[in-house]
Amino acid sequence: MIVHASDYLGAGNGDPAATRSSLIGRLRDWEDAGSWQEFFDTYWKLIYSVAIRAGLAETEARDVVQETVVCVARQIRDGGYNRTRSTFKNWLCLITRRRIIDHLRKRTDPKLRHVPTPGGTTRTDTLARVADPAPLADDLWDQEWRKNLLDAAIERVRTQVTPKQFQIFDLSVLRELPVSEVRKLLKVNAAQVYLARHRVGGLVKKQVKRLETRAENLPGAPK
Fold it and tell me: Could you count the other beta carbons within 10 Å of the beta carbon of residue 164?
């Protein structure tokens, strides 16, 4: 598995603890709250990052996270998700896109539609770009989906290996330091570096596959 530091960049500066606490409170009466908390921990960065990159402010992006997860939970509870008709990845993309568009429309003032944003686009441009499902599904969403799976996998693997092994993996793979530098910093030999890279990298790859499988087996989803 070839990995690069750019694949592991964080998804934003939202407040996951506050958002999760509020969200789980709204889902507390639903079956298997623990699984929904795990769902939130796995996907909040993905939803948040896509919302930010679509042009929303941090507070709007946090709202999109909550609204998206609640919508997913409701549709799962009411039988609105059928895995034979769509992959979970595409289904979550559609729900997230709709919530983003809702927020863009709420703040769109006809008098300000053509006022340039700091990025050099107009509000009309931003809304049009997000309203078109193809770019979000094929480009932005795919990028963030892959990054998010790797991020979530790495966080889970961190608890499965020794601190030393993870530190070697972090410096050698995530931070892309030369083996010679890792050896000096951590006072280990080259064999230890390669072994940690192989072991931790293999666990990350397995965890990514596990997360992909779990995505199609949400709490209450029809089998």
Answer: 12
Among 171, 167, 190, 170, CA closest to 180:
190
pLDDT score of 97: 92
Sign of torsion, CA 73 77 80 81?
positive
pTM greater than 0.90 (yes/no): no
- Mean pLDDT (the chain, rounded): 76
pLDDT digits 0-9 by tens, 120-155: 445 445 544 544 444 454 678 888 999 999 999 999
Predicted confidence at residue 111, as pLDDT, reads 45
Tell me the C-alpha distance between 88 and 149, whole Å.
13
- Give the other-Cβ count within 10 Å of 21's Cβ: 10
Alpha carbon distance 16, 36 (integer Å): 14
